[in-house]
Design a protein that fits this description.
The structure is a single chain. By secondary structure, the chain is of the alpha/beta class. The protein has two domains: 140 residues, Periplasmic binding protein-like II (D-Maltodextrin-Binding Protein, domain 2, 3-Layer(aba) Sandwich); 110 residues, D-Maltodextrin-Binding Protein, domain 2. It is 46% helix and 20% strand. Strands 1, 2, 3, 4, 7, 8, 9 and 10 form an eight-stranded mixed beta sheet that branches. Strand 5, helix 7 and strand 6 form a beta-alpha-beta unit. Helix 3 crosses helix 10. The N and C termini lie far apart (92 Å).
Length: 292
Amino acid sequence: MIRRIFIACLACCLVILSGEASDILVKQKPAIAQSSTNKNVIVAMTTSIEDSGLLDDLVPAIEKKTGYTLKKVAVGTGQALALAQKGEVDALFVNSPKAERKVLAGGAVINRHLVMHNDFVIVGPDADKAKIRGKKNAVEAFSLIAKNQALFVSRGDDSGTNKLEKDLWQQAKVTPSGSWYQQTGSGMAQTLQVANQKLGYTLADRATYIFQKKNLSLPILVQGDKKLLNLYHVMEVNSQKFPKVNSAGAKAFINYVLSPEGQTLIAAHGKKEFKQPLFYVDAGKTEKDYGF
């Protein structure tokens, strides 16, 4: 009799404990799901976006609007694309259309959109040994720099700027080498500083040049050639190919920079300080609108 009573009591205790354990597990489920949500979005971007000061405006606005923390990786476009091809970042903000299209075709990135543009300029010493001042043809200017063996400082970092520079040398039928051609392996701001110190020529995006101009003595010598147009695209790293990618965070980042709020912020950057915009916004447009 006593044994039966003991067994019955034990069974009741087990039922109660099982019910409490189930309640605990049910209550814990939302907490577990919440802790697995990734609120960091890693964006690899060309250094000119940082060197032009645009990130100082973009980052706080994006984080406030989306709730994501933006982790930026400022490198040359070539390096940014390589990171995307390994699935090591969530999104890209870069400026080398030809290289971007190859990566897009390979399936590593998706959801590519034109965000903004400005242009490249060729800057150099006021003495202008190569006599390129006022030229409207960038290829002709590069030919004259090589012909006169005037010091040219290259980024040499496989960035969008560096890729364009290589294309211009190729079109000029020049293989740059020798003491007159030097490479920094650095970003745009640092390369401008080296060119400034050595009184050399360099190719620069206009936004970074304007933002850094107070520290430079190099004037713009060549501008306005269509070949010098500088288009910036965003794209999402393909989560179907790389499951660890924060697809939701990448979409939130892309949607913001293409939104009216994001486009207004980009268009306003530089106007107050420099009396001119550093970028012109392009949401809804494509490369075809610019003849590419």
